[in-house]
Amino acid sequence: MLQMELNEIMKELESLGNERTKKIYMSHGAKEPVFGVTINAMKPLFKRLKYNQTLAEQLYATGNYDAMYLAGMIAEPKKMTEEDFERWIESAYFHMISDYIVAVTLAETDIAFAVADRWIESGIELKMSAGWSCYEWLLGSRKDSEFNKDKLLAMLGKVSKTIHNQPNRTKYAMNNFIMALGISYLPLHEEAKKAAQEVGKVDVFIGKTLCQTNLATEYIQNAVDKGKIGFKRKHVRC
Fold this sequence. Notes:
Order of helices and strands: HHHHHHHHHHHHEEH
Distance between the termini: 28 Å
Mean pLDDT: 95
Number of strands: 2
Radius of gyration: 18 Å
Number of helices: 13
Low-confidence stretches: none
């Protein structure tokens, strides 16, 4: 029954895809198989399927980028173990999977800190970027009281000292961590601003193309000007 359902969903995803979106995804690192389904086009499918961890596992295992994204939308994170997340991150072959599917799903679990910490120390580019990205999602959604201030300060120090020597996607996620800390975690707002000044512009390349990254000092100041300091999301996943 589930295999039949999976086949029908894959056919529906294929019908929702378009070449323009597919080219955009592939320009960012997606590989075949990929249909090119926009998130907005996927939302009605998510509303119909609702949360279903068994189906999420089947979709993720297809290796199809669109199916993997849908898997993240319908996943039931609290049913997932550390081993499940290790399996997911091993299949995350580019940053849109590691940082926007795996890390986002992980951020809704009780094991998020332990897994993210391990990935940050892994020395593997996409695991490290997923770990730092998970903290970005955590900082933007959980109460300040849920974090260890001294630990976050030590992490900020590590970013300041090592960011420019890291692999590209890790640098990008570290820069986002500074901004998340400066905007969403009030106890270290000033320290994050100082770190942003020390770090300055972060150059990230996709292949040989220089990727546009936010200047953390400007991004944090913009949030200050708009009165968004202390901002928290109600939900991590869209």
